[in-house]
Design a protein that fits this description.
The complex is a heterodimer of chains A (121) and B (420). Chain A is α+β, with helices and mostly antiparallel strands. Chain A has helices at residues 36-47, 80-88; strands spanning 2-7, 16-21, 29-31, 50-51, 54-59, 66-71, 75-76, 91-92, 101-103, 113-115. Chain B has three domains: 3-125 and 262-332, FAD/NAD(P)-binding domain; 128-259, FAD/NAD(P)-binding domain (3-Layer(bba) Sandwich); 337-415, Sandwich (Immunoglobulin-like), CATH 2.60.40. The chains are: A alpha+beta (121), B alpha/beta (420). Chain A binds chain B through residues 6-12, 14, 16, 51-56, 58, 63-66, 68, 70, 77, 80, 84, 98, 116-118, and chain B through 39-40, 46, 49-52, 55, 61-66, 68-69, 152-156, 181, 199-201, 203-205, 209, 306-307. Chain B: InterPro entries: FAD/NAD-bd_sf, FAD/NAD-binding_dom, Metab_Enz_Cyan_OpOx_G3PDH.
């Protein structure tokens, strides 16, 4: 039997999760979670680890040198470094609204990058 | 000419606490000004670009700027007036029991505010290298974690190329990931305690994800470098003292200190508010009123919280009590609340008979399970078994007013040896 230990990152509680499977191609069984998000997190983490990505992009505001942005969902880890490089090379035009789309469908994952604050001047 | 403005409520600080409080008092129809030295509202949330905020307060996971945007909008829609870019330099109680505040702003010069109630929401500031008295030279490249965060996330500038982080609090851990995501090498996180002081999920996603080593029970014993940081010396602790024979050197050009926060209470002192040395904040009653009638406090100015959601919740409670004060309700009683075994502090520091009250504690111990006990006037009135006790996590419990049915000292203790 194979066993792995994970810490759930879905909320500040940080449940200590155990994942076990009988055979190398079997289904992982998750325990230690206090809510269903723990199971979803562990399954993703074991098969295709993903993270929410947050960063800043330069902008032409007179008040702020840069604006915070985020992915609207967790992005597979292998796409994080290329995305960050792309974001750091951008300069965006204001005004923008919190939640407004910056980049759509990163690497065909369906994950978008959105602005995480308002900026009007 | 000095401008004068009059309000029912003056809130000092437009962060997660002040905005929640202002939304509450303005929403109830009381004229409210919220004063902050920054040009934009949101406080420290604006530089906390990572996600993880708001699950309790907004029932949704948000980044810091998103949380700030939402709570600002709520306060604005409630009708709060914002005085931004304005630093409150003086606050005092007037002979007519109102309060006089003086604020300086580049735009408007000196403005005098008069208010019937004051809500203190100034938050906290970071402890620094100076607080730890770390030996060594005084080169460039030494930052508090929060000032490096501001540099990266608000100014869009890099603090250096290779870093060591002192302290494993959440801000330090979040900064470890942020530095890595900006192409800066993070050589190590150094923690004097035997356990990390940040949340487990931040150890997982900010250190383990990047293979950043965490040295527990280690201390930085020397900082080297002439103009810029060149290296730090690190030694393991034996009985709390660095073992110099096992010192090792880490080359780096940047050193971040994430070594705790201190409530910012200079203005509270001006008002003559009674402070609790254990929290660094005011000693408040069950309605978060300080020892000065009409002055309330909530959020990190009162005690340092783990989660911003609790900061907003607490400040909203303080604001509700401020509304009762303005309505002329009699002040809550001031029966003393104290802590004994294994607890660093309790908030509030006073209780009122027959009132349901939420108490917040900071434990001093790490334990899988422990029993929290309340004794009123020497007699056990309440106890609860708690799991997963860690100094990094605040304990919050509500006691029903029916149990708090007489005056006398209310004393809490946390015991690990459970009675059979």
């Amino acid at each position: 039997m194979e066993e792995k230990h994970l810490i759930c990152i879905s909320c500040p509680t940080g449940c200590r999760l155990s994942a076990s499977r009988e055979t190398a191609d079997g289904e992982w069984k998750i325990t230690g979670n206090r809510c269903p998000r723990g199971v979803a997190y562990a399954q993703n983490e074991l098969h295709d680890p993903r993270r929410i990505v947050t960063a800043v992009v330069r902008c032409d505001s007179e008040l702020l040198p840069c604006l915070p942005v985020r992915t609207n969902a967790a992005l597979p880890k292998r796409f994080i470094a290329p995305l960050l490089n792309r974001l750091y090379q951008m300069e965006v035009k204001i005004p923008v609204k919190c939640g407004e789309l910056l980049l759509a469908d990163i690497e065909n994952t369906g994950v978008n990058v959105i602005f995480s604050c308002d900026c009007v001047k | 000419m000095i401008q004068e403005e009059t309000y029912d409520v003056a809130v000092i600080g437009a962060g997660a606490a002040g905005l929640a409080a202002a939304a509450e008092t303005a929403g109830a129809g009381r004229s409210t000004v919220v004063i902050d030295r920054e040009e934009l509202p949101g406080g420290i949330l604006r530089q906390c670009i990572h996600n993880g905020f708001g699950i309790n307060y907004f029932k949704e996971e948000l980044t810091g700027p998103e949380y700030a945007t939402r709570i600002t909008r709520i306060a604005e829609e409630a009708g709060a007036v914002f005085a931004l870019g304005s630093a409150v330099t003086d606050v005092k109680r007037l002979p007519d029991n109102r309060f006089g505040l003086v604020a300086l702003s580049a735009e408007r010069g000196v403005v005098r505010y008069t208010a019937r109630a004051v809500i203190l929401a100034m938050g906290c500031r970071e402890r620094t290298r100076g607080n730890l008295a770390v030996p060594g030279t005084r080169p460039a490249g030494i930052y508090t974690a929060g000032s490096a965060q501001k540099l990266l996330n608000r100014d869009g500038a890099l603090p250096g190329t290779s870093a060591v982080i002192v302290g494993s609090g959440d801000i330090g851990l979040i900064m470890a990931r942020r530095l890595r995501w900006c192409g800066i090498e993070v050589k190590a996180v150094i923690e004097i305690m035997p356990q990390p002081s940040g949340l487990p999920r931040n150890i997982a996603q900010c250190l383990d994800d990047f293979g950043i080593p965490l040295y527990l029970e280690h201390a930085v014993t020397n900082i080297g470098g002439a103009k810029r940081v060149e290296y730090v010396d690190v030694a393991p602790l034996a009985d709390g003292i660095p073992d110099a024979s096992k010192t090792f050197r880490i080359q780096c050009d940047t050193l971040l200190f994430s070594v705790g926060l201190v409530p910012e209470n200079e203005l509270s002192r001006q008002l003559g508010v009674e402070l609790n040395p254990a929290t660094g904040g005011a000693r408040v009653d069950s309605g978060f009123q300080t020892s000065v009638p009409g002055v309330f406090a909530g959020g990190n100015v009162l005690h340092v919280h783990d989660l911003v959601d609790f900061v907003s919740e607490e400040a909203a409670l303080a604001a509700k009590a401020a509304l009762r004060y303005l309505d002329g309700a009699p002040p809550p009683e001031r029966n003393r609340v104290r802590v004994e075994a294994n607890l660093k502090y309790v908030v509030p520091g006073y209780f009122s008979r027959n009132l349901n009250t939420v108490f917040s504690f900071r434990p001093l111990i790490t334990a899988d399970a422990a029993q929290l006990t309340a004794r009123l006037d020497g007699e056990i009135v309440w106890k609860r078994r708690l799991r997963g006790i860690r100094p990094a996590e605040m304990i919050k419990v509500e006691l029903p007013g029916t149990l708090l049915n007489r005056s006398g000292d209310l004393v809490f203790s946390l015991e690990t040896e459970l009675e059979a």
